[in-house]
Amino acid sequence: MTTTGDSRTTAMTGPWWWERRRSAVLDIVLAVLSALECGAEGIPFARDAGIPMAAGVVFGALAGSVLLLRRRFPIAVVLVSIAVTPARMGVLLTVVGLYSLAAAELPRRIIGSLAGMSMLGTLIIAFVRADQDMSRGDLQVGDWFVPFAAITTALGITAPPLLFGLYVGARRRLMESLRERADSLERELQLLAERAEERAEWARNEERTRIAREMHDVVAHRVSLMVVHAAALQAVARKDPEKAVKNAALVGDMGRQALTELREMLGVLRTNENTATTPGVRGSTAPSTAPVPLASVAAAAAAAAARADDSSDGPCLAELDELVGQSRAAGMAVDLSVDGEPPAPGYPADVEQTAYRVVQEALTNVHKHAAGAKTYVRLAHRTSEIAMQVENEPPPEPVPGSPEARLPSGGNGLLGMQERVRALGGVFVSGPTEAGGFRVSAVLPARGSADC
């Protein structure tokens, strides 16, 4: 696991300012080695400076032990190394201090200034030492050797740790940037997963609502007519056997139509279920406990909606005469009027289906709540829209002793019609009339073109 920010701070396991214990151990070892080196080099420094040897050793040990603070105060370590350069001590202190300075997250001008001061001090000391060796006769070379030795020594001590520290610091910053980017991508993926789950849940809810609406439209109208015909069959069974036979045949036809439409709806549901299951085990009836991917759920819902809205499966306005004829056969006085002509390419399938369902549900409500009332169905084809209206007069008073077909109502018919119309950008209005009847009006935009 990568850690950045607060999580990285909480992941620190070392003492004080160290992130890890091994970092603390490494710095302690380097500080001890630097203290030993500077303490040993403090002996000739004390001899040349004319001070007690113990003072030179203690001074060198204290200067070398400053390396313990290289992670916390790299600038202080480099300044101490520059300060002890004239005493000809602190090579390890200088090398490690320059590396820590270059690897730290400091401005480049500070790093460059301190590195230049350290190189200049080393260059001067190396030049002086080489010149003294030449003066004592320890070295028998040309005059060119003194500046060459001084420059080589200064570059050799300062350049490698400085460049290596810059590389390590850049790599460290790159890794931090990659960690932050990975964390950011992880958060974005989590947000996308949450949004995908929300969209899938929305698709499932829309699919449930659509299926419930289709089931209501398919079943309510057919069953309502069947109940009406059954009541009429009961009333005329003994008085008019021929009419009773006719009503019984109508009941059978409507029942078969209802079963056919129910099979189509169940077929859509089965196809949706097969699409959402994991492929690979065909025909298996064992329940699967593996989670279904959200994308598969959304795709299955969308595919089922597309199949259910296929123009070849839904009704169209050409079947409106048959729909009105079924209500007339059930004893309802229905007056159908059509104004205008539909556009040449025809309406889109969803527009025709919605218009048909609105009229169907309105007639079903008349059967339920105003049996025997005269009903007017009006359809108007306009330039850019199609309008429909179903209005019934007040129902007649029931005759004493006559059987009544009480039809249950779930109260979702008007809500379903309103949802259908508004989903297409139309307008839906319903309510009682001044004469005591009820009116349902809808206007749908006639956009697009599709064959019914």
Descriptive keywords:
single chain; 452 residues; five-stranded mixed β-sheet; disordered N terminus
Question: Can you give me a brief rundown of this structure?
Answer:
With 452 residues, this protein is α+β, with helices and mostly antiparallel strands.
Structure report:
The chain has 452 residues and is an alpha+beta fold. Among the domains are: 6-192, no CATH class; 316-398 and 409-452, Histidine kinase-like ATPase, C-terminal domain (Heat Shock Protein 90, 2-Layer Sandwich), CATH 3.30.565.10. The chain is built from twelve helices and five strands. Strand 4 and strand 5 form a beta hairpin. The longest helix is centred in the middle third of the chain and has 92 residues, at 145-236. The protein starts with 5 loop residues before the first helix and ends in a 7-residue tail after the last strand. Residues 1-10 and 278-312 have low confidence and may be disordered.
User: Percent helix among the residues?
Assistant: 55-70%
| H/E topology pattern | HHHHHHHHHHEHEEHEE
Number of helical segments with 4 or more residues: 12
- In this structure, how is the largest beta sheet organized? 5 strands, mixed
Oligomer: single chain
Low-confidence runs (pLDDT<50, min 5 residues)? 1-10, 278-312
Query: In percent terms, what proportion of residues is strand?
Result: 5-15%
- State the total count of DSSP E strands: 5
Q: Rg from C-alpha positions?
A: 47 Å
Spatial strand sequence of the major β-sheet: 1-2-3-5-4
